[in-house]
Design goal:
By secondary structure, this protein is mainly alpha-helical. It has 2 domains: about 1-195, Growth Hormone, Chain: A; about 205-390, MFS general substrate transporter like domains (Growth Hormone, Chain: A). Helix content is about 80%, strand content about 0%. The relative contact order is 0.14. InterPro entries: MFS, MFS_trans_sf, MFS_Transporter.
């Protein structure tokens, strides 16, 4: 048996994972806040610009299908390192492409950035649920909250650089260096997602359970469908709130941006504060409440007769959507023997919804209006509510302590348990 980590080492591991999620948010915002510079530097109108951005989506979508295999074969830490090297190289190359006005290089850069982001997202979630099990309490919503904080900080940096006239290439280069530095520092303090499963018998079980086995596992797929609905609730908001407010509520662009900020702020608040409720009341009870809030918020936003009530809907929708995705990742990790593979599969389903859902909603919005198109999202969130019971696997609906799951329980090292009612 390998030495058990001390409480301080586990806390350091947890903080390192928080930094990785924060870095992911920085990476996302590093270029999205300066799309105008890309369009202007490459002399692209909205149509060609949309085709260029599709390169990032294609890269992400192609990588997300193989991310589970890569994580299970090489381990989460190795995949995080490799994927961030790839993604930050893409960030820097986008800056170079715009500087020399090369559309082909920009497309290639966005594609490899998408590849890196997709793999890093899956691998980071596997690390996240591993440290959650080691801590013995729910913390994945806080990790995803740090991603949201990273996007806010990244957006603020991008806005400030735009105001100060910092060249796009310079902005992208130093953001790439900052992001990879944060990740390299954090990985020094991360540990294997198989921590607590150090015996030969346990590791044999871990390595024998493969990605294709998880795709055939009914329980894993049902958790994935739950996550799919909540990912759509989050992803559709990111893409369509501002446009719905400006076009169908007939507000200004500033109000549209404020609407997006309102949703993100509500969701971040829900993630940072909701962990307390998860630990106090359990996964199922809290998710039933939050899914119901997401349904209510969507209904209000879709049918509200005025902008003020629409903003109320955004707040309720954001709070309701906040815990679904991260808690689904936690549920997929309940069986520590299968955790890494199952989390990678559920992550794949969730990120496929993030990537593929909003464009399909655009087609519905074109035919029926954006707000009425969101009725499709409402149906999926209702499905997620119906599936919450499948997220309860073990007695008392609490995270499993991997340290207590060795082949001989009598020899297991006792862990400090959190105070829970």
């Amino acid at each position: 048996m390998k030495a058990t980590l001390t409480g301080q080492q586990i806390k350091t591991w947890y903080r390192a994972v928080l930094i990785i999620f924060f870095a992911s948010g920085l990476l996302t915002a590093s270029w999205l806040t300066r799309l105008h510079d890309i369009s202007h530097g490459l002399h692209l109108s909205p149509g060609p610009m949309g085709m260029l951005l599709l390169a990032q989506t294609v890269g992400s979508f192609s990588a997300v299908s193989m991310s589970g295999y890569l994580v299970s074969k090489f381990g989460a830490r190795t995949c995080i390192l490799g994927s961030y090297i790839l993604a930050t190289a893409g960030v820097a190359l986008v800056g170079l492409a715009v500087s020399i006005a090369s559309v082909p290089l920009a497309a290639f850069s966005l594609m490899i950035m998408g590849l890196g982001i997709a793999v890093s997202n899956v691998a980071s979630n596997v690390q996240g649920v591993a440290v959650e099990r080691a801590l013995g309490r729910f913390v994945t919503p806080i990790m995803h909250g740090f991603f949201s904080i990273g996007t806010v900080v990244g957006a603020a940096i991008g806005t400030a650089d735009t105001f100060l006239g910092v060249p796009f290439g310079v902005h992208m280069l130093y953001m790439a260096i900052l992001i990879i530095a944060l990740v390299l520092y954090s990985l020094r303090h991360c540990h294997s997602e198989n921590y607590g499963q150090d015996s030969t018998a346990m590791m044999a079980q871990v390595t024998s359970y493969r990605v294709k086995d998880a795709w055939r596992d009914k329980h894993t797929i049902l958790i994935g469908i739950f996550v799919l609905g909540m990912a759509l609730a989050e992803g559709s908001a990111n893409d369509w709130i501002a446009l719905a407010l400006t076009r169908e509520y007939e507000t200004t662009a500033t109000v549209g941006s404020l609407g997006y900020f309102t949703f993100v702020a509500a969701m971040t608040t829900g993630r940072l504060l909701g962990t307390r409720f998860l630990n106090a009341h359990g996964r199922i009870s809290v998710l039933r409440v939050t899914c119901s809030l997401a349904i209510i918020g969507l209904i209000i936003f879709i049918f509200a007769p005025n902008t003020a009530l629409g903003f109320v809907g955004l707040v309720v929708w954001g709070l309701g959507a906040s815990l679904g995705f991260p808690t689904g990742m936690s549920a997929a990790s309940d069986d520590p023997v299968k955790a890494a593979v199952r989390v990678s599969v559920v992550s794949t389903i969730g990120y496929a919804a993030f990537l593929g859902g909003p464009p399909l909603l655009g087609m519905l919005g074109e035919a029926f209006g954006i707000r009425h198109g969101l009725l499709a999202v409402l149906i999926f969130v209702v499905s997620s509510l119906m599936l919450t019971r499948y997220l309860e696997v073990f007695k008392n609906d609490k995270p499993v302590h991997t340290e207590s799951l060795g082949p001989d329980p009598a020899t297991a090292v006792p862990q400090e348990q959190p105070n829970q009612p």
